[in-house]
Amino acid sequence: MINIGLKRFPKALECLHNVVTAPMSTINAIAIEAYKKYILVALIHLGQIPSLPKYTASTVLRSLKSYAQHLTEVSSGFMFFLWHPYVGLASSYATGKFSELEAFIQTNVEKFQTDNNLGLVKQVLSSLYKRNIQRLTQTYLTLSLQDIANAVHLNTSKEAEMQVLQMIQDGDIFATINQKDGMVSFHEDPEQYKTCEMIDQIDSSIQR
User: Fold this and answer.
1) What is the pLDDT of residue 65?
2) Could you tell me the strand order of the sheet in which 142-144 lies?
3) In this structure, is the dihedral angle defined by the CA atoms of residues 165, 166, 171 and 172, taken in order, positive or negative?
4) What is the pLDDT of residues 28-79, one digit of tens each?
5) Closest-CA residue to 181 (of 146, 138, 132)
6) How far apart are CA 41 and CA 18, in angstroms?
7) With the CA atoms of 150, 112, 119 and 127 taken in that order, what torsion angle do they form, in degrees rounded to the nearest 10?
8) β partners of residue 175
9) Which letter, b or e, does each residue of 66-95 get, where b requires 16 or more Cβ atoms within 10 Å of its Cβ?
């Protein structure tokens, strides 16, 4: 929870992963709440939910499988009630459609509020802008700020510029903005992983 508050999402995801995959004979309230947050943090940080490893307790895997089936069969059950809004949120996120995700959140806002997860859910919504801009870099070499705003459903080209600048600063994309004509040029990752500094950095990561 502290890591989430400080936006250290990789570390938060690791902690939540450890809770969900810890040995347990029956699914418990701590694991349920942790998995809800695991879904939200994974969407913010990775844009998708990683599958759980094989060593996860069979009770947890069975419960997850059971609620996944509930989603398709729409049968009643305790697990369906607990999980549905979070799995639905992930499905809406995967479409990349901002309006669809926003509508789903509005429909389930009371459930997210009751779980004290509404703040995280709003961050999931914001992160969709970033994911959609990242998708554009895979298709286009240059785009105008207005085109980016239209594609990701931002209100103005100024908002698109602020979003792109933040992503450049965070190292999420490699791009330059031409202020004169409002065009954004997307680039490949300039890091060739050949410098002494980078080799030292990789080596220290391996050691750690």
Assistant:
1) 62
2) 142-144, 183-186, 175-178
3) negative
4) 889 889 999 999 999 999 999 888 888 888 888 877 666 544 444 443 444 4
5) 146
6) 14
7) -30
8) 186
9) ebeebeeeeeeeebbebbbbbbebbebbee
Alpha-carbon span 122 to 43, nearest angstrom:
11
Here the tokens at position 40 are 């939200």
Residue 56: count of CB within 10 angstroms of its CB? 17
38 touches 16 (CB < 8 A): yes
Compute the C-alpha angle 198/17/77, nearest 5°.
Answer: 150
How far apart (Å, rounded) are the C-alpha atoms in residues 208 and 201? 11
141 CB-near residues (< 8 Å, 6+ apart): 185, 186
DSSP codes of every residue in 94-107: HHT-HHHHHHHHHH
pLDDT along the chain (208 residues), means of 10: 94 95 88 91 92 86 63 42 75 90 94 94 93 89 92 89 90 88 87 78 86
Judge contact between 135 and 96, C-beta under 8 A.
yes
Q: What's this model's pTM, rounded to 2 decimal places?
A: 0.76
3-state secondary structure of 177: strand
Tokens of 186: 């997307």
DSSP state of 121: H
C-beta separation of 177 from 161 below 8 A: yes
